[in-house]
Amino acid sequence: MSLSAIVFDFDGLIIDTEGPGFISWQEIYQEFGKSLTLDDWRHSTGYVGGFDPAIHLEKLLGRKLDWSELMPRRSQRNWELTLQADVLPGIKELIEAGKQSGLPIGVASNSEQGWVESGLKRLGLRSYIDVIVTRDMVLNPKPAPDVYLKVVETLHVPPWQAVALEDSEPGYRAAKRARLKTVVIPNQFSERQNLSDADLIVQTALELDLDRLRELVRGGVPKAAASPR
What we know:
Blueprint: E1 5-8, H1 18-31, H2 38-41, H3 53-61, H4 67-83, H5 91-100, E2 105-109, H6 113-122, E3 131-134, H7 146-155, E4 162-166, H8 169-177, E5 181-184, E6 200-201, H9 210-217
Parallel strand pairs: 1-2, 1-4, 2-3, 4-5, 5-6
Helix pairs in contact: 1-4
C-alpha cells in the first residue's frame, strides 16, 4: 500500500496561531486583573464553539463587559502577532518534498476559507496546495470527519492511503474518523489534550520525511472509528 496524499491542518500546525490568540486574550484578562491559563486555553485549541474566553472572563468578574471596544482591539492585536509568525519548523520542507514526489497536498481546517487562503498566500505556500477544505464548506467541523472526507474525495485518493498532520485532539480524531493515518505535532496547549490514539506523535515536522509517512501507511487499512456520540 502506498502513500497517496498528505493533508495538513492549518492553525497550530502550519503556523502558530494559538500563541497569538492566547497572548491577545491574556492581555485583555490582565487589564481586569485576571489571568487566562494554559489549561483554560487548551479547551479552545482545535475546537469550534468550545471554550469562550469572553464568557469566561465575565464569569470571573461576575459582571457583563462592553465588548464593542474590547473585541476589535483584541482581534487587531491577534492579527499583529499572527503576522509576525512564520511557517513552523519542517512543514514547508515536507510540503515541498511531497510535491517533488508528485503527491497531492491538501489542507483541512476548522477555520474559515478566507483566513486559510490568505494565510497560505502570505506564507508563500498556496501554490503547493491542491485542495483546501474549511469548516464553512462542510456540514460539521472537527472532530467530525467531514473536512477530511471532502479533501480525500476531491483528491480522488482512498483515505487509508493518506496521512493527516494535526496539532490537536479534535483534529486528529476527525482524521481518524475519516480513516486517514494521523500524525500529531502538539503545541504547548494541545499537549494537555488526550492525544493517545494518534498513530504517531512527534515534537516537530523536522522528525518527519516521506519514508516515515509511507511506513505509516504500510501499516494497513485501519478500521473505521466510531462516530462521535
